[in-house]
Amino acid sequence: MQVLVTGGTGFLGAHTVAALAREGHQVRMLARAHAGVERALGPLGVSASGVEVMLGDVTDPAAVNRAVRGVDAVVHAAAVFSFDTRQNAAMRRTNVAGTELVLSAARRFDVGRTVYVSTFGAMLPASGGVIGTRTAPGAAREPYLASKAAAEAVAREHQAQGAPVVITYPPALLGPDDPKLGDQNARLRNMLRGLMPMWPSGGFPVGDVRDTAALHAALLTAPADSPDRHFGPGRYASTRVFVRSARLVTGRSLPTVFLPARAMMPLAYLAGLAQRVWPWHIPAEYGACYVCACDARPDDERPPLGIAARPFTQTLADTVRWLHRRGLVTARQAGQAIGPADVSTVAPEHV
């Protein structure tokens, strides 16, 4: 099967390309530059020469049409994921307009199946803190979540019109081989570096990028009568469990003060305003506090298509080891994660 992947130079997109390649699919990528393809795929054991690369952007109709024409399936993973307020305009442009362009092109060229990569955050805030695949898109004012809610509405409209669109809702993803050090892995790195001594209360679903990538590959050959919306493999974890898991993996004390998420939001909001003019990234992010304050979890954590989520501590350990190999944390900051300790079989609820 020939599969177009948008966003293939990003974290989840690159792992999805690798999962598709392992399944024997022919992969085409829509990317802005060849250099980003090699940087993203090389660490995953996928040669850039083994994929077809079409240069262009998901916001360019001509580039999208060229990329979609002739493929059997599309995985639309391109998005700007950031709680950094400097990215607001890019998020609106890529996440919403880009989704409409790609999904419309897939229908125009009669693509057999399109997988649209949403996020659990697209339904925040949710009544009672529980999200289902039929929960309405959220009404968050936070720019990233608002852009994904708008894109979610676009994807659902295509579904309602009979288009063969499948939607996935990845949890907050961690894991190794992140080509651009996205928000979740950067947040873990900041914690290990002592830059996050305060955490909001609440929690959110967490998972491993490799598991959601495997789900994307499996969806392309799933029966036609399979569900058209899926949560990515993962589980809910409170912020306290997140920190305890990191302590277990690293063997470090990681002193942390937990404050009510809603009490932290005004300060985080002001930090977001300052971020627009401050050249360096400020770890206190309004969007992250907002997600924790919503404290939502999926209504069904059963493995989608039988793809079980690996233990969260295994994901954390693999991520910390990767951060150390890349020189992004020191040996002291990584702690026993780079030593002989084996925590891969301990689930977060047992921490």
If you had to describe this structure to a student in words, what would you say it looks like?
With 351 residues, the chain is an alpha/beta fold. It folds into two domains: 2-180 and 205-234, 3-Layer(aba) Sandwich (Rossmann fold); 183-202 and 237-299 and 311-350, no CATH class. Helix content is 40%, strand content 16%. Helix 1 links the parallel strand 1 and strand 2 (26-31). Helix 4 runs parallel beside helix 5 (143-160). The termini are far apart. 52% of the residues are buried.
Core attributes:
351 residues; alpha/beta; Rossmann fold; 2 domains; seven-stranded parallel beta sheet; three-stranded mixed beta sheet; 12 helices; 14 strands; disordered C terminus
Q: What is the topology?
A:
Blueprint: E1 2-6, H1 11-22, E2 26-31, H2 34-41, E3 52-55, H3 61-68, E4 73-76, H4 88-108, E5 113-117, E6 130-131, H5 143-160, E7 165-169, E8 172-174, H6 183-192, E9 198-200, E10 203-208, H7 209-219, E11 229-231, E12 235-238, H8 239-250, E13 257-259, H9 261-275, H10 286-294, E14 297-298, H11 312-325, H12 331-334
Parallel strand pairs: 1-2, 1-4, 2-3, 4-5, 5-7, 6-14, 7-11, 8-10, 9-13
Antiparallel strand pairs: 10-12
Please give a quick description of this structure.
This protein is α/β, with parallel strands linked by helices. It has helices spanning 11-22, 34-41, 61-68, 88-108, 143-160, 183-192, 209-219, 239-250, 261-275, 286-294, 312-325, 331-334; strands at 2-6, 26-31, 52-55, 73-76, 113-117, 130-131, 165-169, 172-174, 198-200, 203-208, 229-231, 235-238, 257-259, 297-298.
